Amino acid sequence: MLELYAFPLSGNSRKAALTLEEVGAEYEYHSIDLMQGGQKQPDYLAINPNGKVPTLRDGDHLLWESSAIMLYLAEKFPTAGLIPTDPVWRSKLYQWLIWQPGTYNPPISALGQLLLTPNEQQNPNLIKQLHETIRKNSEIIETQLGEGSFLLGDFSLADIVMLPHLNAAVERKVELSANMQAYLERLQSRPSWKKVSSMTP
Ligand SMILES: N[C@@H](CCC(=O)N[C@@H](CS)C(=O)NCC(=O)O)C(=O)O
Predict the structure, then answer these.
(1) Beta carbons of 21 and 196 less than 8 angstroms apart
(2) CB of 52 closer than 6 A to ligand 1?
(3) Which of 43, 55, 161, 185 could cross-link with 48 by S-S, CB 3.0 to 4.6 Å?
(4) Ligand 1 centre from 50 Cα, in Å?
(5) Which of 4, 7, 9, 12 maximizes ligand 1 atoms within 8 Å of its Cβ, making it the mutation to test the pocket?
(6) What is 87-190's CATH number?
(7) Domain-wise residue ranges, the chain
């Protein structure tokens, strides 16, 4: 059986868990408690030397990096249709799978870190700048969506990779356009999100 080592509140863990749900795989979830430093324990470092979640185990095959895990699962379960077969559309999928962690996520994570500091130590200008960057990045997603429901026409890994941090941005009070809010709600209405977002550490 597939095994996922992850932390329920982590966005990158959620990407892997959402993909497992969307492909309909049976899997065992091992919660690695980031609050208690579980990711730095020797037994976990033995399966992921980065000391980060998530990690997937498929028999002897150990895999880390959430986007790699998503691609592996989507290819292992092709009938779920999460990867376009056409090379041009497939390359667009790779574009979003690389852009999300490289460009979209960093200001959202930085905002999350800033909001953890006590109010009196917060830098309102920096918070405003991060909101602005996230808003501009969200416009890039919105342009790709156009009149469509999903980024690549049909629902795909490109939507899964966006969902956890788009959700986190709204939790961090970033204002989205009406179209982006509708896109987020469309993704949140899927059973996969209902299950994954209700998991607790
Ligand atoms: N590039 C990695 C990033 C993984 C990552 O940063 N995970 C965070 C949780 S979202 C983590 O484990 N943080 C704990 C730490 O850095 O100690 C991926 O996409 O899997």
Answers:
(1) yes
(2) yes
(3) 55
(4) 8
(5) 12
(6) 1.20.1050.10
(7) 2-81, 87-190
Pick the residue whose CA is nearest to atom 11 on ligand 1: 52
**CA-to-CA distance for 73 and 20, rounded, in angstroms?**
7
The per-residue pLDDT for range 109-150, each reduced to its tens digit, is: 999 999 988 888 888 999 999 999 999 999 999 999 999 999
Class of domain 2-81: alpha beta
pLDDT tens digits along 85-113? 999 999 999 999 999 999 999 999 999 99
* pLDDT tens digit sequence for 52-82: 999 999 999 999 999 999 999 999 999 999 9
Query: Alpha helix locations (H) across the chain?
Result: 11-23, 42-45, 66-76, 87-99, 105-116, 124-145, 157-171, 178-188, 191-197
Nearest-atom number in ligand 1 for the CA of 32 is 12
Taking the CA of residue 16 as reference, the ligand 1 atom at the shortest distance is 20
